[in-house]
Design goal:
Mean pLDDT of chain B: 78
Number of strands of chain A: 17
Radius of gyration of chain A: 72 Å
Low-confidence stretches of chain B: 1-19
Oligomer: heterodimer
Structural class of chain B: alpha+beta
Number of helices of chain A: 20
Distance between the termini of chain A: 68 Å
Shape of chain A: rod-shaped
Largest sheet of chain A: 5 strands, antiparallel
Strand content of chain B: 35-45%
Bound molecules: adenosine-5'-diphosphate, magnesium ion
Helix content of chain A: 55-70%
Number of helices of chain B: 6
Chain lengths: 816, 214
C-alpha cells in the first residue's frame, strides 16, 4: 500500500511532468525521421537496414505519441463523467483545436494522395510499353541470322565429328572448332560427363555446361539453340546437337555443345536495349507499390500531424484552463467553508484579473467569517456565563420553551424539587408531575398558565407552593414569567425559592409576640395575687387558731411560691419573646464580669474570675450581657448542686475573659467553666434550642436566651464539655496554669472587638455558626504568645493600635 | 444471455478503460491471424535436409530445400526485378542461461533473375561471380534447391570446442529489393521466403580430418 502510494507520487511528480517535453522531443524526432525517409526513398543506394530502422523508429514514436494522446483522452473522458471542474470546457477546447487543425491537414492529405496516384499513373504510356517490347523483339531478331549460321556450322561440325572414335575426338575437336568459328566446343558423353572440350580461351578450365533442358533436348535427337546470358555482359549463342544421330533415346549417346561469341557491338546494343526494357517493366510493375509507399508516407505524416495537433490541443487547453480550474476548485472550497485559499496570480491577462478579484472576494468573506466567529464566540461565552450564573443562583430556575418543554435547569431546582435533571429535560410540566407525584401542587398552580396565550409576555405570576420533598415539607415561593415573544426563544422561566425557614422565622416572630403579650397579661395580675396572699397571711395568721392558721400558712405560702415561680417563668418567656431592641455602648467586658461576680460573693459555690488584666472593649448592652452571665452562672450552680461534682474538688464556676485570634480576626472571648458533670452528651447538639432542659422545673429557655442575646451582639456561642485536665492546661489562658477538674461544662462566647472610632451597625445580623458545639479546644488556641500578651498588658494603647490595624484589614475581608 | 447482458452492463463502467485496450488487442490479434492464414498459400522456403561431413580438413555442408515461389514473386522477376537469396550457416556451442556462442558462420548469396533478351532464368552466385542460365524457372529453382559441398569452415576451427550445433536457413534479402517493394515484402506473405532455422549435426573432428597434411 505504501509502495503503491509512493509510486503514485513518483508518477504524478516526475512522469507527468516529464511527458510533455518527451513528447515534444518525439515530435521533433519524428519530423527528422520523416525527412530522412523521404530522402532515402529518393536515393538509390543507402546503407543496409536504414530504411527499416527509420520506419521502426517512427512507428515507435507515433505509438508513443498515440499512447500519450490516448492517456489524455481517457483522463478527459473520466473527468468529464465525474463532472470534474473544467472538463467540459477542456473537451470543447480540444475538439475545437483538433477540428481547426485536422480539417486543413485532411484536405491537404486528400489532394496529395490523389495527386500522387494520378501523377504516377501518368508516367506510363501504352505506346511506350509496346515500343519497349518491340525493341526487345527487334534485338532478338537481330541475333536470329547469327544463330542460324551458328546452327548450321555446328551441325556440320557434328557430322564431321561423327565418325571419329573416342580418343581421337579430342584431337579433332579443336580443329573443327576453329573451322566453325565457335568460341568453345564440348562433347558430353553418357551421364553428362565431358568427353572432350576445346576453347578459344585458354584460361577457362571448366567448360560451360548446358542446362538439363538443352541436354535432354539433344538426347531426344532434337537440336537446341539459344542465347546464353553467361556472366556479365558477354552474351553467347549456345547450340547443342546430338553427335550420334540415329541412336536416340539410349542416354549413352554423345552430345555436342558449341558456344559462339557475339560481336561486342551487338552485345552492347542488346544489353542497353534490355536495360531500358527492364527499367520500364520494373517501373510498371512497381508503380502500384510505389503509390502505396507514397500514400503510406503521407499517412504517416498525417498521423504525426494529427497526433501532434491533438496533443498540443490538450496542452494548450490545460494551460488555458488551469486558472479556471483553480478558480472552480477555489469556489468549491469557499462553498465548503474553507476561506483560507489564495490562488496564485501569475498572469496579467483577464483571467489573472479574475483570479485577483476572486482572491479579494475570499479575503473579504474570510474577514466577515472571522468577525462572525468572534461574535459567535462572544455569544457562546455570554451563554456559558449565564449558564454559570444560573447554576450558582440560590434559587431554582427552570426555563421552558414556548410549547412548555423544559430546556434548562440548574442544580438548585433539582435539589429543591427532589428530582433528577435527566428525567425532566424536554418534558412538559404535566409530564414531570406524572413522574414525580409530589410536585402536583406546582402543576396545579402553574399548569394552566403555560398553555399558549394564557400568560401575556412579561407578566409574572407568583405563588407559594408546599411540597413534600426528600428533606420534609418545603414551602417554595414560585414565580413564573413569560419571556417576551420577540425574543429568539420566547417561552417561560420558572423560579423557585425555598422560603421554609423564612416563613418559620416569621411564624416564630409572631409567636414570640404572642408570648410577650401573654406574659405581660399574666404578669400583671400576679403581683396583686402575691400581695393579696401576703396580706391575707399577715392579717389572718395571728387571729386564727392553730389548725386553720396552719392551713392558711401553707396555702398562702404555696400561693406565694407558685406565683414567684410563675413570675420567673413568665419573665423568662417575656425575655425570650422580647422585641430585639437593644442599646449598644462600648464597655469593658472585664469590668462587667467583675461586677456580676461581686453579686455571687459569699454564696455556696464560689465564682472565680480570670482576667488578662487589660480592658476588653465590646459594643454591648450591659443589661443583656449581665443577663447572659447570670444565666450561665446560675446554670452551672444549679447543675453542680443538683448533680454534684464527680471529682473530689469543691464545686466552683470560673469565668475567664480574654482575646481570641482567628484568621486575622481578633475577638473578645468569655469562657464560663464549671467542674460539674458537664452537659448531657445526648443534649449537646440542641442545647441552645428553646425548651431543652433536664430539670423538672426548668423552662429550657436559659441557653436559648443566651444564644439570642449573643447573636444580637453579632457574637457567637459554643458549648462543649471539658474533656481532660491536660487539655485544660493548654487552653486559652496559659496564665492560669492550674490543673482543674477532669469534667465540667464549658460555654464559650466570642464577641467582636469594639473600636471607639468605628461606627457600629447595630442592626447587622450575624449569621450564627452552623456548628454550635466546639469539641476540643485546639481550634481556638490563641496564636499570640504569652510575651505578646504581656506586652499588650504593659502597653494597652499600643495593643489597641495594633488591633486596630488587624481589625481594619480583617474587617474588609469580613464585610466582603 | 439476458443475465450475461445484465452483468455486462453492470461492469460496463468499471471495465470501460480496459475494454478499449481489449478491443485494440483483439483487432491486432485478428490482423495477425489473417496474416498467418494468408501465409499458408504463399511463398515459402523449407529446408528438408542438411548434412555435413569433413573431407580433407574442411567441413562440407549439403543442403536440400524446397522453394515455392508465389505468382507475385515470379511476376516481379519476369518484370526484371531480381530476387536475392542468402543461405546462412552458423556453427555455435550452446551455453546454459545464455545465447549460444557463435563459432563460425558462412553465407552464400544467390541472385535469381529473368533475362528478357534470352528468355532464360539466371542463377548467379554473387560471391563466386558464377552464373548459370536455365531455360525454365523450375530448372533454376532446382539448382537452388540442391546445395552441394558448401565449405562452411575448417575442421581445425572446430577443434576442442565441446559439443557444437549447426544451423542453416534461407533468407530473402529484402534490402536488395527496389524501395517500393521493401515495405510490402516485410509484411506480405507472398514475399516471405525466409525459412526457419534448420539444425544439423556437426561431425566430430577426428585426427584424420584435421587436414594438417594439406
Ligand atoms: N453548667 C451546666 N452543667 C451541666 N448541665 C447544664 C449546665 N448548664 C445547663 N445545663 C443543662 O442544660 C439544660 C438547659 O439549661 P437552660 O437552657 O438554662 O434551661 P433550664 O435551666 O431552665 O433547665 C439544663 O436543663 C441542664 O441540664
Ligand atoms: Mg437555666
Amino acid at each position: 500500500m505504501k509502495f503503491v502510494g509512493s509510486w503514485g507520487q513518483i508518477y504524478t511528480r516526475w512522469i507527468r511532468r516529464l511527458i510533455p517535453p518527451i513528447s515534444m522531443m518525439v515530435v521533433v524526432l519524428l519530423l527528422i525521421l520523416m525527412y530522412l525517409i523521404s530522402e532515402s526513398l529518393q536515393r538509390a543506394n543507402q546503407p543496409e537496414h536504414l530504411y527499416l530502422s527509420l520506419l521502426g523508429l517512427s512507428a515507435l514514436g507515433i505509438l508513443f505519441l498515440a499512447a500519450v494522446v490516448l492517456g489524455h483522452i481517457i483522463r478527459l473522458v473520466s473527468n468529464y463523467r465525474r463532472g470534474a471542474p473544467g472538463a467540459r470546457l477542456t473537451a470543447r477546447l480540444v475538439l475545437t483545436f483538433v477540428g481547426l487543425t485536422s480539417i486543413p491537414v485532411l484536405i491537404v492529405f486528400y489532394f496529395s494522395v490523389s495527386f500522387i496516384q494520378r501523377g504516377i499513373d501518368s508516367w506510363f504510356d501504352v505506346q511506350v510499353e509496346q515500343a519497349m517490347s518491340d525493341a526487345l523483339s527487334l534485338s532478338q531478331l537481330a541475333f536470329d541470322g547469327q544463330m542460324r549460321t551458328a546452327m548450321n556450322e555446328t551441325m556440320r561440325a557434328a557430322t564431321q565429328l561423327k565418325g571419329v572414335s573416342g580418343d581421337l575426338v579430342a584431337l579433332d575437336l579443336n580443329a573443327v572448332r576453329r573451322n566453325t568459328g565457335a568460341h568453345e566446343m564440348t562433347i558430353f558423353g553418357s551421364r553428362n560427363l565431358i568427353v572432350a572440350s576445346a576453347s578459344d580461351d585458354l584460361q577457362a578450365i571448366v567448360p560451360s555446361r548446358p542446362d538439363e533442358t538443352a541436354l535432354s533436348h539433344a538426347r531426344a535427337g532434337k537440336d537446341f539453340i539459344g542465347l546464353d546470358p553467361g556472366g556479365g555482359d558477354s552474351m553467347r549463342i549456345r547450340v547443342v546437337v546430338p553427335l550420334t544421330a540415329g541412336l536416340t533415346g539410349d542416354g549413352s549417346s554423345e552430345v555436342l555443345q558449341a558456344l559462339y561469341s557475339i560481336s561486342p557491338r551487338a552485345n552492347q546494343l542488346s544489353s542497353s536495349v534490355q536495360a531500358a526494357f527492364n527499367e520500364y517493366r520494373s517501373l510498371i510493375f512497381l508503380h502500384k507499390s510505389l503509390k502505396k509507399t507514397f500514400t503510406f508516407a503521407l499517412t504517416l505524416a498525417l498521423l504525426l500531424s494529427l497526433l501532434t495537433a491533438v496533443w498540443l490541443a490538450f496542452i494548450a487547453a490545460r494551460r488555458l484552463l488551469a486558472p479556471i480550474r483553480e478558480l472552480a476548485a477555489g469556489t468549491r472550497a469557499v462553498a465548503e467553508g474553507d476561506y483560507s485559499l489564495r490562488l496564485p496570480v501569475d498572469r496579467r491577462d483577464d483571467l489573472g484579473q479574475l483570479v485577483q478579484s476572486f482572491n479579494t472576494m475570499t479575503a473579504r468573506v474570510r474577514r466577515a467569517h472571522q468577525v462572525m466567529q468572534q461574535l459567535q464566540e462572544v455569544a457562546d461565552q455570554e451563554r456559558d456565563y449565564l449558564e454559570t450564573v444560573i447554576q450558582h443562583l440560590s434559587s431554582g430556575v427552570l426555563t421552558l420553551s414556548p410549547d412548555g418543554r423544559i430546556t434548562r435547569n440548574n442544580s438548585v431546582v433539582t435539589q429543591l424539587l427532589s428530582i433528577t435533571s435527566q428525567h425532566i429535560d424536554g418534558c412538559t410540566l404535566t409530564e414531570i408531575c406524572q413522574i414525580y407525584p409530589h410536585l402536583e401542587p406546582i402543576c396545579a398552580a402553574f399548569g394552566h398558565l403555560l398553555e399558549p396565550g394564557q400568560l401575556p409576555a412579561g407578566a409574572t405570576v407568583e405563588a407559594q407552593v408546599r411540597i413534600m420533598g426528600d428533606a420534609g415539607r418545603r414551602i417554595l415561593l414560585s414565580r413564573v414569567a413569560a419571556l417576551p415573544a420577540d425574543d429568539v426563544t420566547g417561552g417561560f422561566v420558572l423560579v423557585f425559592e425555598d422560603v421554609t425557614t423564612l416563613i418559620q422565622a416569621q411564624r416564630d416572630a409572631a409567636w414570640s409576640e404572642v408570648a410577650r403579650r401573654l406574659a405581660h397579661e399574666i404578669k400583671n395580675p400576679l403581683t396583686p395575687i402575691q400581695l393579696s396572699a401576703e396580706r391575707l397571711r399577715r392579717r389572718l395568721l395571728g387571729n386564727l387558731s392553730d389548725e386553720p392558721a396552719q392551713i392558711l400558712d401553707r396555702s398562702t405560702q404555696t400561693i406565694i411560691n407558685q406565683v414567684e415561680a410563675m413570675k420567673f417563668m413568665v419573665n423568662e418567656f417575656a425575655e425570650y419573646a422580647r422585641s430585639p431592641q437593644i442599646t449598644l455602648k462600648i464597655l469593658d467586658l472585664d469590668e462587667l464580669v467583675s461586677e456580676v461576680i461581686d453579686l455571687y460573693k459569699g454564696g455556696d459555690i464560689p465564682v472565680l474570675h480570670r482576667s488578662v488584666g487589660h480592658p476588653l472593649p465590646v459594643r454591648a448592652d450591659a443589661g443583656r450581657i449581665r443577663q447572659v452571665l447570670h444565666n450561665l452562672i446560675r446554670n452551672a450552680q444549679q447543675a453542680m448542686t443538683e448533680q454534684g461534682c464527680p471529682g473530689s474538688d469543691e464545686p466552683e464556676v470560673t469565668l475567664s475573659t480574654g482575646l481570641h485570634q482567628e484568621g486575622g480576626l481578633v475577638l473578645v472571648e468569655l469562657t464560663v467553666t464549671d467542674n460539674g458533670t458537664g452537659f448531657p452528651e445526648d443534649m449537646i447538639d440542641r442545647l441552645f434550642e428553646p425548651y431543652t432542659t433536664t430539670r423538672p422545673k426548668g423552662s429550657g429557655l436559659g441557653l436559648a436566651i443566651v444564644k439570642k442575646i449573643v447573636e444580637e451582639h453579632s457574637g457567637m456561642v459554643l458549648a462543649s464539655n471539658v474533656q481532660d485536665g491536660p487539655v485544660e492546661l493548654q487552653s486559652d489562658i496559659p496564665a492560669r496554669g492550674v490543673a482543674t477538674a477532669k469534667t465540667g461544662a464549658r460555654i464559650v462566647i466570642r464577641l467582636p472587638f469594639a473600636l471607639p472610632d468605628l461606627p457600629m451597625d447595630t442592626n447587622r445580623e450575624t449569621a450564627s455558626p452552623k456548628s454550635s458545639v466546639l469539641t476540643g479546644s485546639k481550634e481556638d488556641r490563641p496564636e499570640t504568645s504569652p510575651a505578646d500578651l504581656t506586652s499588650r498588658h504593659n502597653a494597652p494603647r499600643d495593643l489597641f493600635r495594633r488591633m486596630d490595624d488587624t481589625r481594619a484589614e480583617s474587617d474588609l475581608d469580613h464585610s466582603g | 444471455m439476458g443475465s450475461f447482458m445484465l452483468c455486462w452492463k453492470k461492469t460496463d463502467r468499471a471495465a470501460d478503460r480496459n475494454s478499449a485496450a481489449a478491443s485494440a488487442l483483439s483487432v491486432f490479434l485478428l490482423l495477425a491471424l489473417v496474416l498467418l492464414c494468408a501465409q499458408a498459400h504463399a511463398s515459402s522456403a523449407n529446408i528438408q535436409r542438411a548434412h555435413a561431413e569433413i573431407r580433407e580438413g574442411v567441413v562440407y555442408l549439403d543442403v536440400d530445400l524446397k522453394l515455392v515461389l508465389d505468382k507475385e514473386m515470379i511476376d516481379a522477376m519476369r518484370n526484371a526485378i531480381p530476387i536475392n537469396l542468402s543461405m546462412i550457416s552458423v556453427i555455435e556451442s550452446p551455453r546454459d542461461w545464455w545465447l549460444p556462442n557463435e563459432i563460425a558462420s558462412d553465407q552464400r548469396r544467390y541472385r535469381l533473375e529473368f533475362h528478357a533478351l534470352s528468355k532464360t532464368w539466371l542463377v548467379t552466385d554473387t560471391l563466386e561471380h558464377e552464373a548459370r542460365s536455365f531455360s525454365t524457372l523450375d530448372g533454376a529453382l532446382h539448382s537452388l534447391e540442391r546445395i552441394r559441398a558448401w565449405p562452411v569452415t575448417t575442421a581445425k576451427h572446430l577443434e576442442g570446442r565441446g559439443p557444437l550445433v549447426g544451423r542453416v536457413r534461407m533468407v530473402l534479402d529484402v534490402n536488395k529489393l527496389p524501395l517500393p517493394l521493401r515495405f510490402p515484402a516485410l509484411f506480405d506473405s507472398r514475399w516471405s521466403l525466409n525459412s526457419a532455422w534448420f539444425s544439423w549435426t556437426v561431425p566430430t573432428v577426428g585426427a584424420a580430418d584435421r587436414g594438417d597434411d594439406l
